[in-house]
Amino acid sequence: MVGDRRKRRALSPLLAAEHYLDAELERCSAEALFLMDRGEVVASSVRDGGRYEGGTPLAAAYSDGGASCDLYAHVVDVRGRSLLFASIGARVRSVREVERSIDRIFAE
């Protein structure tokens, strides 16, 4: 949960972003969350025992059995850069909150 994520603070912004996505995944019913830059996965979080594997490119994850699930994709601004945030299976509560949190992580 959130407390656990805070205990696992990371010096690397990429690892911190993964910890944040893990916590966000726990708050929603999505199967997987991805943050991408120009088609490359920057950070991701997937449910344990689910059909997706961490680090799998979004297109591969979605086409390998995920195509029956809903895909939600949003452009988010992180440090002036447009990144793609995607969730498979369900929406997150607030994309703008995800955007602010990821932006704050990469500001440090």
Structure characterization notes:
The chain is built from four helices and four strands; from the N terminus they run ααββαββα. The protein has a four-stranded antiparallel sheet, with helices on one face. The mean pLDDT is 84. It has one domain (2-107): Beta-Lactamase (2-Layer Sandwich). By secondary structure, the chain is of the alpha+beta class.
List keywords for this structure.
108 residues, alpha+beta
Tell me briefly what this model is.
With 108 residues, this protein is α+β, with helices and mostly antiparallel strands.
Instruction: Quote the beta fraction.
Output: 25-35%
Total count of strands = 4
Main beta sheet: strand number and arrangement? 4 strands, antiparallel
CATH topology: Beta-Lactamase
- Backbone CA Rg: 13 Å
**Residue runs with pLDDT of under 50 for 5 or more positions:** none
Helix content: 25-40%
Helical element count? 4
**CATH class bucket:** Alpha Beta
Spatial order of the strands in the main sheet? 2-1-4-3
Order of helices and strands: HHEEHEEH
Count of domain modules = 1
Q: How confident is the prediction overall: mean pLDDT? A: 84
CATH superfamily: Dynein light chain 2a, cytoplasmic
Query: So, CATH architecture?
Result: 2-Layer Sandwich
Distance between the termini: 22 Å
The chain-level structural class is alpha+beta
Quaternary organisation: single chain
Shape: globular
